[in-house]
DNA sequence: GTTAGCACTCACCGTGCCTAAGTGCTAAGT
DNA sequence: ACTTAGCACTTAGGCACGGTGAGTGCTAAC
């Protein structure tokens, strides 16, 4: 009972099961793959694989299907990342090259990835990183209503309308802006709060109340908000492959809508040597996502923001991993350009 | 065979069917509602209602279920909009009062509505309306990279990073900003393009190339983009009520992800006298949405932006209509405040 | 270590049967 | 002119039954 053939059998089981959705038996296996042995031998191998917990038989007398552990071994040791077809490469290029601003790029990317993989795609907005304050703008919209705009040196703009406790003159507001900009220009966003707490010179005492309100808002804007958001696409693919999921798909949809859950999930993905991270079935740390696997990778200058797909455990890992990796690379290139 | 009792029978059928999911028969009807007649009489009424196309029997011998036409009559003539429970009113108030900026308000609103109705909620960003240019900002990020910011007097900010054809000095960029702001300040967004085409005075000939690039971008930003976007929540509710939908729910999820489709759908909803718009089953103008109904209404100062829910034809219309209307009112109040 | 053969298990499918719910219709009652 | 009781009729859905086929484990021979 050779070690290598047993792995070969596991690979064959995974591949057949992934594309037929049905438990695969020893006889079917020798027919479809030309392993040079008979079905009885395969049966022995299968018994050994089952012993190791790599495959299971759903019913006493039916073919075997891979366990999470089986998929894990397949992904780690057996499979190669498939190269994309040239048609796919072209699709990526043409779609992403036509993109406009950041929102547009993100939207196109996530849709593209869901189409390539026939799965749900998720993407996290890129991090602000070590961005610094570049500009501050206050716009008086109404007597006590001010639009506060914070522009970072990486091109990110955060804005919000707030109310002041009392009326303020346009000129006073301009003075406040000058004073605050003087204090904050070039300061990393992460240090805005500390810097403001240390005091803002050159502000008339009469404007103290307004200063406090505006400062509080600047602190608020300097905490990454939009960046902590994810986009998704292709939820229809979930519904299309019902039956791949043990229970209903509604808890999955709920988790997907819960940004916080997805953000934590993505942040827990550690890239492996091949540049992708795969969590399979029970490895996914949320009960509501049982029966699903996640394939993700980082993108952008420091690969800190994540992009990936979520699908049934029974998924074509090599192809999916290839698609995720390729899309992330194109995306990084575009963002760098 | 009195006219009023027939309508009463229709109402009873709709109400029973909506909350039991099962075809309702004549006997069950007389038991649950105290209509003062026997089941045989109800059978005659039912036959008449079926003749009019208001109800149908799925199988030769089973209870009746309402047709789209039946629901329509129910919504138009029989049902009253239910008042919300005080718990619901409180939920709306506490949730929306804690909201921050516009994005946050929208997000909370759409989640709230989906929870109240147990349906998929959709909301369209408010229109810019007759907003005018209030401010323009150019920020030099790199030798040829400029962040263009356009601020409208209603507080909306649009921004984008663009590349210039050649290097530009900080001072020259400031001059360009002054010139463009002089030309555009107070101009309605819809007329930005025409105004720029008429010429911008006070720009050195050397900056002509840069002026052209920047102007083009301002035109681009002045066309509403973000406003033409919708948010949704509660897709898990779709999956939970499988069986209410004739086919799969995946075409529905596809349509929901297709912003363009949803925008057109919402824009086609005409408010009726009661301030809500209802499209039932086949009245919804998209094949992929067969078996669904949409309940929507307008919100904001001119009620031009829409908010609503999408669910199975078999839906509790009175309650849903009440929830949609209530949420839209609170939302309008918050945006106005 | 591999193979052939064999007895065994069980999901799946079609069949037939029965029941419960519901209907339409007719004839009698108000 | 309605309403009602009664009755014959229809049919979805549940249940038992048996046959089939794919697949297994095991044993004995190669």
Describe what this molecule looks like in 3D.
2 copies of one chain form a homodimer. The first copy, chain A, is an alpha+beta fold. The first copy, chain A, folds into 3 domains: 74 residues, Arc Repressor Mutant, subunit A (Orthogonal Bundle); 152 residues, Beta-Lactamase; 94 residues, Heat-inducible transcription repressor hrca homolog, domain 3 (Enolase-like, domain 1), CATH 3.30.390.60. The first copy, chain A, contains 13 helices and 10 strands. In chain A, the strands form 3 sheets. Chain A has a 5-stranded antiparallel sheet with strand order 7-3-10-9-8. In chain A, helix 5 packs parallel to helix 13 and helix 6 packs antiparallel against helix 13. The termini of chain A are far apart. In chain A, 39% of the residues are buried. At the A-B interface, strand 4, strand 5, strand 6, helix 10 and helix 11 of A face strand 4, strand 5, strand 6, helix 10 and helix 11 of B. The structure holds a DNA duplex (30 and 30 nucleotides). Chains A, B: InterPro entries: DeoR_HTH, GAF-like_dom_sf, HrcA, HrcA_C, WH-like_DNA-bd_sf, WH_DNA-bd_sf, WHTH_transcript_rep_HrcA_IDD. Chains A, B: Keywords: Repressor, Stress response, Transcription, Transcription regulation. Chains A, B: Belongs to the HrcA family. Chains A, B: It comes from Arthrobacter mobilis.
């Amino acid at each position: 009972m050779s070690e290598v053939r047993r792995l070969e059998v596991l690979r064959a089981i995974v591949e057949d099961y992934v594309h037929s959705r049905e438990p695969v038996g020893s006889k079917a296996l020798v027919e479809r793959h030309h392993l040079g042995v008979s079905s009885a031998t395969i049966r022995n191998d299968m018994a050994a694989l089952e012993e190791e917990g790599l495959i299971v038989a759903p019913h006493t007398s039916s073919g075997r299907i891979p366990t999470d552990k089986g998929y894990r071994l397949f992904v780690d040791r057996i499979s190669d990342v498939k190269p994309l077809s040239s048609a796919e490469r072209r699709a990526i290029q043409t779609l992403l090259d036509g993109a406009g601003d950041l929102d547009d790029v993100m939207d196109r990317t996530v849709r593209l990835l869901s189409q390539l993989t026939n799965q749900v795609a998720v993407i996290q907005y890129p991090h602000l990183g070590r961005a610094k304050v570049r500009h501050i703008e206050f716009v008086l919209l109404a007597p006590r209503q001010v639009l506060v705009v914070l522009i970072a040196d990486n091109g990110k703009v955060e804005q919000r309308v707030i109310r002041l406790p009392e009326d303020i003159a346009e000129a006073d507001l301009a003075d406040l802006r000058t004073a605050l900009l003087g204090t904050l220009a070039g300061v990393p966003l992460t240090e805005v709060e500390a810097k403001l707490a240390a005091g803002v010179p050159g502000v008339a005492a009469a404007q103290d109340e307004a200063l406090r309100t505006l400062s509080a808002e600047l602190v608020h804007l300097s905490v990454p908000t939009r960046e902590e958001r994810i986009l998704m696409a292709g939820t229809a693919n979930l519904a299309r492959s019902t039956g791949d999921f043990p229970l209903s798909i509604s808890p999955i949809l709920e988790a997907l809508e819960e940004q916080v859950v997805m953000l934590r999930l993505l942040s827990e993905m550690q890239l492996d040597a091949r540049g992708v991270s795969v969590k399979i079935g029970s490895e996914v740390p949320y009960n509501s996502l049982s029966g699903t696997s996640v394939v993700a990778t980082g993108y952008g200058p420091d690969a800190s923001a994540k992009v990936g797909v979520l699908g049934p455990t029974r998924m074509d890992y090599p192809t999916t991993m290839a698609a995720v990796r390729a899309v992330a690379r194109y995306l990084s290139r575009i963002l760098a350009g």
